[in-house]
Amino acid sequence: MKYAFYPGCVARGATPELYTSTIAVCEKLGIELETTSMEAASCTGSGVLQEKNQRLGDTLNARNLALGERAELPIMTICSTCQGVMGQAEKRLEDADYRASVNEDLAEEGLQYKGNPGPRHLLWILLEDYGLEKLKAQFIRPLTGLKIAPFYGCYLVRPEDALAFEDNPDRKNSLEIIIEAVGAEVADFPGKTACCGFPILTINQTNSMKMVSNHTLAAKREGATAMVTPCPLCHLNLDGYQPTASKQVGQPIDLPILHLPQLLGLALGIEPEVLRLNKHIVETDKVLSAMALTP
Amino acid sequence: MDVALNVRRFDPEAERPESYYQEFALEVDETATVLDGLIQVREEVDGTLAVRCSCRSAICGSCAMKVNGKGVLGCTTKFIDVMGPDGAAVTVEPAGNMGLIKDLVVEFDAHWDKIKAIEPWLKPSGPAPEAEYLTSDQDMLHLAGVMGCIQSGVCTSECTVLEIDENFLGPAALAKAYRFVADPRDDADVDRLGQLNRYGGIWDCTRCMKCVEACPKDVDPMGRIMAMRELAMVAGYTDNNGASHANAFYDIVKRNGLLNEFWLIMKTFGMFNIPEMLKLAPIGIKAFFRGKMPPITFDKIPEPKSVTRIFEKVEGRNK
Amino acid sequence: MRAALSAAQNGVDVAVVSKVYPVRSHSNAAQGGINAAMADRGDKWEDHAFDTIKGSDYLADQDAVEVMAQEAGAEIIGMEHMGAAFNRGEDGRLGVRNFGGQRDARTFFIADFTGQALLHVLHEQVLKSGVRVYEEWFVTTLVMDDGRCTGAVAMDMRTGELHYMRAKAVIMASGGLGRVFEPSTNALICTGDGIAQAYQAGAGVMDMEMVQYHPTTLKNNGALMSEAARGDGAYLLNSEGERFMERYAPNMMELASRDVVSRAEQTEINEGRSIDGCVLLDARHLGEKFISERLGQIRQLGIDFAGKDLATEPVPIRPGMHYIMGGIKTNVDGLTNIPGLYAAGETACVSVHGGNRLGANSLLDTLVFGRRSGVHASEWVKSQPAAGGDASVEGTENARLQAILDRKDGELFGPVRTALGKTMDKNLAVYRDQAGMEAAWADLLELRKRFEGVVVHDKGRIFNTNLIFTLELGFMLDCAETIIAGALERKESRGAHTRTDIPGRNDAEWLKHIVVTKAPEGQDTPNIEYVPVTITQWEPQERKY
Known about the structure:
The complex is a heterotrimer.
Chain A: E1 2-6, H1 16-29, E2 32-34, H2 48-52, H3 54-70, E3 75-77, H4 80-92, H5 96-106, E4 120-121, H6 122-130, H7 132-138, E5 147-150, H8 174-181, E6 185-186, H9 205-221, E7 226-229, H10 232-240, H11 242-249, E8 257-259, H12 260-268, H13 285-290
Parallel strand pairs in A: 1-2, 1-3, 3-4, 5-6, 5-7, 7-8
Chain B: E1 2-9, E2 20-27, H1 34-45, E3 64-67, E4 70-73, H2 79-82, E5 90-93, E6 100-102, E7 105-106, H3 109-117, H4 137-147, H5 154-158, H6 170-181, H7 189-196, H8 210-214, H9 221-234, H10 241-256, H11 261-269, H12 274-289, H13 304-318
Parallel strand pairs in B: 1-5
Antiparallel strand pairs in B: 1-2, 3-4, 3-5, 6-7
Chain C: H1 2-9, E1 15-18, E2 34-35, H2 45-55, H3 62-82, E3 96-97, E4 107-108, H4 114-129, E5 132-135, E6 137-145, E7 148-156, E8 162-166, E9 170-172, H5 193-201, E10 205-206, E11 211-218, H6 228-231, E12 235-237, H7 245-248, H8 258-270, E13 279-282, H9 288-294, H10 296-306, E14 315-324, E15 327-329, E16 341-343, E17 348-349, H11 362-381, H12 392-406, H13 413-427, E18 431-432, H14 434-452, H15 465-489, E19 498-499, H16 507-510, E20 512-517, E21 527-532
Parallel strand pairs in C: 1-5, 9-16, 15-17, 18-19
Antiparallel strand pairs in C: 2-4, 3-4, 6-7, 7-8, 10-15, 10-20, 11-14, 12-13, 13-14, 20-21
């Protein structure tokens, strides 16, 4: 199982713990990550570039997809937003005329997007390529007794037709499947597929923080020990800005937010330091002590 | 076939009005919709059930409601699609983000107020021509997409920003605003965009796509909001955080191919924006000590020029 | 709304009262388009007028048709100036499509939701004008004072409170009465309220026997599949794959007058050349791109409610009750026989549609006569003293409603309405006969008795839809009375009124309208009067398509 690894911008920037834990987990699972072919890939635009010029976003993503094609490898993403944005571009590029026109701009670099299937998130790859049973067999340290709240991130659940949900119905509750697979209980709460508020952080911080506090507190009401998210942008808001949100709502929150590979890594027996669990804004000690691990 | 409805009821005239759930067991046709079921209840079983509905064919926009937690039109939601394999009861609740009047009937006033707030009428400049204005079929077809809105309020019900901030104009009003901005016969676009450039307008959308998914007429409200953001920036409305954020993002990726969050924040707020910098300082410091601070020197892809070239090519065409 | 705008423009204080938010009105269901003969496109209003008159089977009043045909162009341009986004041709000018019963293409359209689009544009203009709209206010009765209409009593549905809305003039534009029939293409709100209220107030209602059965409705829920499909080239096939209209209307084929097509379909169905009681609408040859651009809405209806994609398979359809050509009798300015009472749109009968309405003439009717009644009414009120009338009507109405609420034990309105709808659809449909219509009358008397005992579960006042539906049922029974009375009276076949026992048109004796007025106390059946048809240019001829 070999994939062209597309980590996205934030995994190498403000959430480096996501990058390192992904590498560690894939190594443990025997998933080969080819890191050079996507080195030349650009940012997907994150929906923000698309605001300024959708065609520009589509061209950049066609280029990213073409790089994967050139490497003759399927692309793996570790960010809901990368997945969603590239998936939406891929959908628009299904139109042969549009694709041909966009390819004209890639020609100078000797690249061409032929229309092959685009990237898939690690979360999906585990269920679809790796296999749930095979995965479960690798978990040596189940998170028994812990309740984990899933937070998908908008781009991983909407719009359904750009995420191929019809052909892959398990994607809809993939995160919950994984939570149960690692031995934990799902803390189901309204808002698990809602918005974390990251896109409006710089525009309306009050609203953004309301979303953070609403969802984290709702998860806590369901007894969640921690929350897991497959999107580093959501992580930035839910973890990075949790203290700010807590201050605004006037209530303590203290809900650890885990990246997906960190959740997997814990169950696979990888050391917490390797997973950089000590590098969060909101302390993750609760999770570790619940697992009888030294924080 | 046998179906069960679990309807959230509310009687404002009860001694102690409070919401409660009531189940109804019905026998319906294979192709029956949830609305068919509700109508059957009120016509034959319990006349007190209040639900707005009229056309039963997704054109009047009356029957917005939540079925199994999701905002839909009752008349296009078939029982077989929402029943689940074990024929479990289908939960029906009033539309969200709107005050409750009775049972499934909600307060639509705020929704209408926002529609009125965007001045939803054509504003041509100068006297009207003798015959029709000349426009292209393409322009009119483009309008037909957003004009398909039947004011159902399903988007209003699902909007994650309206959930926490009632001052947001919301997807329906913003989509309606786009209908005029995109109309070649309307000459007030620049003004309209200026109005929408304020708090509660186009920049307050959190891009969660719930309205896109919920809309029963494929109006794509979020897409229209994004289109207006682009138009607003082109029209020169760039002195707000939303625009400077988009512009900063653009500049950074154009130059380096990748994003750098540190510089993105700096450029969005402006390095000399002392109040904002002071607000961000505690977070920045904490992040720095956890090793989460992106490098101050820009992260680049190996050949950033390939990306810069694409920017120039695509943007160059727009001019 | 069109009337309110022209009244407001004329400087009078006008308010709109609607039992639903204005954009929920059933005009939004009109799909195909709106007709106009534009002189600058080489079209002649006389041609449009003749097509309309022939379509009406010569029952339309030709002076009224002339007015409508002459003003059509200006109305459409007026709507376009307000922002209506009509389809365009290559030259940027308004585009047209073909429609039933017309020899030339003069139907202007907005994709396949022309009605919705025009309704929303009017609403936008109403918002701009600042005209007050009493939304979700349900009118229970008109108020009369000394032979004059002085307003109406309406219930604010939010609180249940009744209010006497005193007005110097009332324009009734409450739409049709589809729910008197089951099934029908009409929305649940189409219960003939205005027609019944005017009838109760003493106005004459005319041509009520003329009920249009639309050729292409879905079997499942009676939903309408726009004539636009046939206008754009779709075929009608029977179970043998034959384009059977060849045998009934060899020239116009699928685009013959609606009554002709409905009769043809019904005959095919009655003679066994149907599939599950339906014939087929086939548009596959038009191609997917065309269908998604021009017929997107009805394609979705076919998928949602019949499980068939118009782009790739034929959709089963059959005739379904759709429109009432008849209504409150008015002159060309919307004035009824009661001073201060006007009517426009489907509620009214001028008559421009006579025995059968052409597609895309209804939206035109509402705009032209909406405008005219707004103008005439607003002009008239300027010279009138304040409306009198006693505020005690509120108390009287309240007591009447409370008496209904106080009833214990009985059936809900639902089964009574369904029974009404079924007997009307059985006996007053495409083909009628004496025995059937008499049976319907007998059923009606039975249903009136049942109605007296209908109970209302909801004893509250806030948003009491249970009470409202019960009141609407009363209106529907009144409407049914006028329909059956008119149908029994007309002893010929004309337009939509086809009697198997008296086939053939009889101009010598029946070139006249039947006007029904409420029976005085003690009389069993309503009063019937005749009014001659106004002929200007076009002598009645044999009607062939």
